[in-house]
Amino acid sequence: MLPISVDRFFRRLLLLPAFLLAIGPSALAGALLGGGDYYVHGTGSDARGDGSPTNPWRTVSHAVDQAGGGQPTIHLGRGLYDAAAGEQFPIFLDEDDVLGVILVGTGDYGANAGMTPRSGPVPMRVR
């Protein structure tokens, strides 16, 4: 019979695959490799979302924090991204990643389409 501490270790180790499935493949790949595709939507949740197309985050700042290194692509869905909705300004990008971040907007926003930088140039690609 194994000592209790070793037995507990192996039981917990068996829970690892279930945990990895629960957090979702896109979040796992992004966490391990950096980069990847992440999704933000006006109806998403930073607390309960995982950054996937079916379970997006709510704020761009949260997506930037979670995206990590590499060259992440953050897909922006329909919504208003302001302080009242939980967005934190200014949105900071790590110095090493600033040119690798791509923000992709979706939907028809008419005359209000795009982003308006408040000061100076924005060193990122916006599609």
Structure report:
With 127 residues, the chain is an alpha/beta fold. The protein has one domain. The protein is 29% helix and 11% strand. It contains three helices and four strands. A four-stranded parallel beta sheet has the order 1-2-3-4. Helix 3 links the parallel strand 1 and strand 2.
Secondary-structure blueprint of this entry?
Elements lengths: L3 H20 L1 H9 L3 E4 L19 H8 L5 E4 L25 E4 L19 E2 L1
Q: Which descriptors apply to this entry?
A:
127 residues, alpha/beta, 4-stranded parallel sheet, 3 helices, 4 strands, 11% strand
Provide a compact summary of the structure:
The protein has 3 helices and 4 strands; from the N terminus they run ααβαβββ. The chain is an alpha/beta fold. The chain has one domain.
Number of domains: 1
Number of helices: 3
Would you count the extended β strands for me? 4
Alpha-beta content class: alpha/beta
Integer average pLDDT = 69
**Order of strands across the widest beta sheet?**
1-2-3-4
Shape category? globular
What are the segments in which pLDDT stays under 50 over at least 5 consecutive residues?
Answer: 108-112
| Helicity range | 25-40%
